[in-house]
Structures are given as C-alpha cells and as structure tokens.
Amino acid sequence: MASLFFGALGLPAIARASESTLVKPYPGARRMTDVTEVRVAGHPVTMETYTTRDAPEKVLAYYASVFRTQGMQPAVTPESVGFFDGASGRWKAVQARRNGKKTLLVLSSLPVAGSDGQRARWPDEFPVPEGVVGQPLVVDQGSGVMTATCVIERGVHKVELFFRSALSARGWKELAPFGSKLLKSVRMLRFESPRAMATITVMPGGPGRAAATVLWEPRS
Question: Which terminal CB of the chain, N or C, has fewer other CB atoms within 10 Å?
Fold first, then answer.
C-alpha cells in the first residue's frame, strides 16, 4: 500500500522506517500507510499518512499548539506546520489538505545533516552565508560526496536568495528544482558547476533563523 501511494506521488519508497522520528498521529485519525522512507531531492524522508474528518485548519491549529507547548517555534503555512528539532537534527512537519469529505494528513521527518562519515572542510569554492551560527558541520560521506549543515541568523527567503546570487556570480548554473508539494515549508535548490553538483535544502530553524544543508556531489 505504501509503495503504491508514494509511488503515485513520484516518491518511490525505499524501506520501512521507524515512527520514532515522526510527530504523534492526530487524535482519532485513521492510518492509511505504514511508516515509509522515500527519496525527496536525494534526501531520505520518513513519511506516514492518515485521514480524519476534521478540517485541515483544525488539524494544523492542533499541531501548532502542541509544538508551542513543547517549546518549539513552528513554521506555519496554509497547508502545513513544522519545526526544526535540534535534538534529533531533523525537520518534522505535518501536511493537511482536504481530500473529498476527509482530510489527508502526511507526517514527515527530514534529516538536516548526515551523521555518518568523517568530518571535513567546507569546499573552498562554495559560498558561506553571512550570519552562520558557530561552525558549519561538514561530513565526508565517501567518494567525494559531502554534506554541510549550518544554522543561519537569516530568514529562509534571504538564505535562498543568497545562494542563488552567490552561486550564479561564481559561475554555477541553477537547475530545475527538486521537491514535492508535500514539503511546502522546505526550499530545495539544485546547482551544477564543471566540478560538482549541489543540492541545497533550506528550512526554518527557529525565530528569524534558517537551517541549510548542502549535498555536494563531484561530477565524474
């Protein structure tokens, strides 16, 4: 069931996953699919789907209240609510949209940084945004592939504009964006240069902050 559902969305399921990385299901909601790991813009994303007869607005208001009670600063859009969980290093979100007489809920969890591999240096030719908090976490995943994660004292839109402007000035070409409508609060950008491909994920990281992850892949 899960593979058919996510496959229809263009998100091929790759494995069963643990629900411990997701927020708790909405009270009284009916499960549609098992917890499944899919690929979005090259990132492993854990997802699970439910349905409820409550309106999307009621569902999102419920989760926003729960997150704030837990001390989180949720980012809210008309169809989603989510937050950056610093303890797990993941972006956790709930999408809610009307589907006939019911509301479809998608619980999702996106890792902000890879935890495997060796620590490495930020690539010299790749720009670093102003306002970075501390030092970026750069991890060598092997075969020249690196992930770099940082929290920035800027909003998501400003960070997105920074990467577009700075990379274009350095000769990088922007490609058609990856992504899914299921992850509206997350910005995903793709760029290429003669030496490498870069996928950049930018999401809210707290009040006035953004969390950015760069996936750097050398070109063969």
Answer: C
Does pTM top 0.85 for this prediction?
no
Domain range summary for the chain, segments of one domain joined by +: 2-111, 118-218
Distance of CA 208 to the CA centre of its chain: 17
Give the DSSP letter string of 13-52: EEEE--GGGSPPPPTTPEE-S--EEEEETTEEEEEEEEEE
Architecture of domain 118-218: 2-Layer Sandwich (3.30)
* Residue where the block lists tokens 């800027």: 154
- Which among 111, 114, 104, 108 is positioned nearest to 35, based on CA atoms? 108
- Checking if the pLDDT of 7 tops 70, the result is no
Residue 208 and residue 117: Cα distance in Å, rounded?
31
> Which ranges in the chain belong to alpha helices (H)?
2-8, 56-69, 156-169
Q: 23-64, pLDDT tens digit by residue?
A: 899 999 999 887 777 766 556 778 888 999 999 999 999 999
- Let me know: does 49 contact 33? Beta carbons within 8 Å: yes
Alpha helices in 94-200 (DSSP H): 156-169
Rounded to 5 degrees, what angle do the CA atoms 149, 147, 199 make?
Answer: 90
- The string of DSSP codes covering 158-208 is HHHHHHHHHHHHTT-EEPPP---GGGTT-EEEEEE-SSEEEEEEEEE-STT
Total length of the chain: 220
